Amino acid sequence: MSYTTTYYHIVFRTYRSEMTIPEDHEKELYAYLYGIAKNLHCQTYRIGGMPDHIHMFVSLPPTLPLASFVQRLKTDSSKWLKANRRFPDFRGWSHEYAGFSYSLRDKDMIVGYILRQKEHHRKVTFKEEYRSFLLKNGIVPDERYFLRDDQ
């Protein structure tokens, strides 16, 4: 028997960072994303975000690559959002995403960070937050493509 744990903090945004996730209905979207993750045998610890982006902290089974998981999340939820009258302005998700690996000991820190998104974004823009995540994880963003959906 093999034993593995993989914990990821995943961040993805709406197309062109448009504010298309109404706060009044964000929990419906979070529940839908949770359902997708559950159907893929993932453990979800926290989902949160803002009108223009989503944060998830999840543990994936060893047979599910991160890219495949995010693709399913974005594809399935995009179809649902576009068909749901409560999200009339949603046009899609951006092409890119970020996924950072963590250990179990980081769980409370990441869950707390996601819980405090509304407070956090009173001081920091999504662009600043995203750039900071990349840099802290050793990724230097290519400014020609950073947060662009017209590639």
Describe this structure in words.
With 151 residues, the protein is an alpha+beta fold. The chain has one domain (7-136): 2-Layer Sandwich (Alpha-Beta Plaits). Helix content is 37%, strand content 18%. It has five helices and four strands. The chain has a four-stranded antiparallel β-sheet, with helices on both faces. Helix 1 crosses helix 2. The longest helix has 18 residues, at 66-83. The radius of gyration is 15 Å and the shape is globular. It starts with 6 loop residues before the first strand and ends in a 15-residue tail after the last helix. The model has no long low-confidence stretch (mean pLDDT 94).
Quick gist of this model?
This protein is an alpha+beta fold. The chain has five helices and four strands, in the order βαββαβααα. Helix 1 crosses helix 2 (66-83).
H/E series, N to C? EHEEHEHHH
Indicate the overall shape. globular
What distance lies between the first and last C-alpha atoms, to the nearest angstrom? 44 Å
Low-confidence stretches: none
So, CATH architecture?
A: 2-Layer Sandwich
Broad structural category: alpha+beta
Structural descriptors:
151 residues, alpha+beta, Alpha-Beta Plaits, 4-stranded antiparallel β-sheet, 5 helices, 37% helix, 18% strand, globular
How are the SSEs ordered, and which strands pair?
Blueprint: E1 7-13, H1 26-39, E2 43-50, E3 53-59, H2 66-83, E4 98-102, H3 107-115, H4 117-120, H5 126-136
Antiparallel strand pairs: 1-3, 1-4, 2-3
